Amino acid sequence: MTLATASLEQPQSQCDGNFILGQKTMDVEERKSSNFWLFKLLFNWTSSSSIMLRAVEKKILSFLKTPYRGFFVDIGPAIGEADKIWTISLNTESKEVPLVLLHGLGAGVAMWVMNLDSIAKDRPVYAMDVLGFGRSSRPSFSNDALICEKQFVKSVEEWRREMNINSMVLLGHSMGGFIASSYALSYPEKVHHLILADPWGFPEKPSDANNTRQIPLWVRALAYALTPLNPLWALRAAGPLGQWVVEKTRPDITRKFAAAVEEDNNLLPQYIHQCNAQTPSGESAFHTMMASFGWAKYPMIHRIKNVRDDIPITFIYGSRSWIDSSSGEKIKAQRVRSKVDIKIVSGAGHHVYADKPEVFNRYVNETCELYRLYRKEPIIRETTESDDEVSSTNLQAEAQKSQQSELQKEENSEADKNLSDGQQTDEVAPNLKQQ
How many structural domains compose the chain? Predict the structure, then answer.
């Protein structure tokens, strides 16, 4: 008896029951399919965010006038199995001591777009996406604050080793300033000068609530409400609306960068969203190191006095920042045998590099020039991965050099001639070795 005849011979009630059961089965399958597409619709941005991040970063950096090169630096199993740090470099032909930039929480290399042209004019500049942020690898950090801090430091040192940079001016903003200071404690022989832009994690958390008045109400409310959570979880929870969340909660970000990106008001909110739409590896590490949003579990003010005396330190604070600038004065008093400068940028907030970029750039350039006599001869050999990204101006400059030295090699410049100003290429570039 076939299955078909068996169905026909069954009682009507049973047949109806099987029909209903079959319908229910179909409904379940349809519901599964529907749920799958709904899930894909809601979370598709996560799987494609790395591609979108790359695109928006390139768009922002296309406004630079200085040729730059973007590449991954393979630092091996620093924390994860095979970590890579996304890096952009400018003016690497200069023999001056290189300036290395470490960004703050939730940021990336493109946030320096208003600074790079100026500060790279007279020296090599390298900006990296700190491990766990931006386009760099996102390994799992330790749940111990001190170990977590050392892991950040190790990633910077492995990056420096791969780049073969003997000595550098290390500039860190906010969380990047905390990491830079810890690095100077661990590897003082590699730090020519330490520049700390509105650094996070220096003062002790005050016991007196009145001492927190200068911290904006929204920061205090956020810190209180989100203590158990990663600070930027709301951007990921918002899904495709993450960019809208940035635009509505931080309209000042758009205003700060408007001139630099020629009034394209979507670029910076989109960039910040995409920087933080992926696995919050570095953000979780920051959460581990913080006592609450404004303070570190292990404040740097108790330790930075141990940075070697011959390393000058320059603090650059925004006059309107919620960061406590009195830490700089205390550290200056501690380091009586060392050079410590404190610069206050009038009218600037925490993002001092973006609020008053001209003043910030001038302070950085003056600082680098002032302490140039202290330099240790750098040896820079730039190591890149296979997916180099090169600005069009950089490609054109290389093509011109090639034509001057080898007039017969027409194929070397053919691709570059087809690129217009501001355009960028995704072609694979060979590894570079600067001798």
Answer: 3
